[in-house]
Input
Amino acid sequence: MERQALLDAVLALCPEAAADNAPQLPEVKVPRARFRALMEHLHSDPALALDYPMCMTAVDWPEQAVITCVYHLYSFPHGHKLVVKCDADRSDARMPTVSDLWRGCEWFEREVYDLFGVTFEGHPDLRRIMLTDDWVGFPLRKDYRDSRIAGKTY
Amino acid sequence: MALSPIQHAAGVVAAAPGGQFVLLNVEALFNWSRANSLFPLTFGLSCCAIEFMAAGMSRHDMARFGAEVARATPRQADLMIVAGTVTEKMAPIVRTLYDQMPDPKYVISMGACATAGGPFYFDNYSVLKGVDQVVPVDVYVPGCPPRPEALIFGIMKLQQKIMREHPLLGARLAAQAAKNGAGSAAPAQAGA
Output
């Protein structure tokens, strides 16, 4: 599916979403209340068939007090890509899990939990994946401080 | 402390006339054989490991210095070349590998990361600021990554260091002390 047609199809599914035909990949930003329903559609709709999660990450925005979760999805049948973004509240970071739709997201969500402290509700086994189990804090949050950090922090 | 068979034999030799001279030559033989058959542990943590591999291949050929037999188990290795970035999570594993190596054992810290945390020193939460925080290091090789020549130079420095060791010093000193003790006790007996 062409980029604009893909964005139009997503907007038809979820009119609240904000679409952006960004230079690299087409993006949609979804309100949290509509996120889970949209992801289910993206996964199961045969015209979209976004069946592969290429990458998942998050961005910490302290000024806006949100953590934006970013999902990069790919469709093997159609060969198109889509980025879905969704904000979680920074003080109480919670997101619905999509690990039941894409099994690959199980480890991605553990990674985002490990480094950003986003709790994925419904995740079967949410624990740290890369840092040690007894680690305190979430290092990729901008306000993370640590005795190991020698110089300037951001 | 229980003496090993070698220490016991060295003590017997040291007590004999001219024994100290013999032991100095035996020490030189020990050092020569140790320095020229360093078995490195097959072990790489990041890009420095590529240079370590290159040092072992035919162009640079670490075998010329007797250090090419990279062992796949710490039980058979006596040189640990820490080639790469040691993370906080990897540090206890590096320490376990070091503890599993038999004595005498040596450590070369290869590259900026293993020496001082490298480019990750500044504001990183996950990287150890130098492998010398968990294992004792004999030779530091600077570079990012060091070229194979630099690693081989580090191995040659380690060989020079090994050649200056005195592996039988304890047994020699014990024998000397026993002789001196016997010598000082003899006049007292004569006086009595």
Q: What stands out?
A: Chain A has three helices and seven strands. Helices of chain A lie at 3-13, 32-44, 105-116. Chain A has a mean pLDDT of 90. The domain at 3-90 of chain A is CATH 3.30.460.80 (Beta Polymerase; domain 2).
